[in-house]
Specification:
Layout (H helix, E strand, L loop, with lengths): L6 E5 L4 H16 L4 E5 L16 H6 L5 H10 L3 E5 H6 L12 E3 L1 H6 L6 E4 L1
Parallel strand pairs: 1-2, 1-5, 2-3, 3-4
Helix pairs in contact: 1-3
Amino acid sequence: MPDLPSLNIIVAVAEGRRLYAALEAGIAAAALGRPVRIFLQGEAAALLRDPVSFAGDEARAAAGQPDLAWLAEEAIAMEIDLFVCQSGMALVGMAATELVPHVRAAGLVSFMAAIGAEDRLIVY
């Protein structure tokens, strides 16, 4: 199988439903063999504070869907690279030790620099 372009996702707003959608898209792409990277920009960095949750978890569970924490764990298990904005962490008063394990702090410039010409970029 030829190398597939990577999927790069930026979550630019601190809304759990946006991260939920980004993780779903990332997991689907990873299941198809694509490399996936997700970057949480600005205040969205707080969405991967351990323990992960959001206001929609209860409704999703009632509908038989996984919660946000499960999706984050699944993404990590599928080797999706998860990054949070260093400036965003400072903005929300969060330390790297508060992140979900395997999530890394990074800058937007370094995230963007790793996106190749054939790769895909989605912003939520």
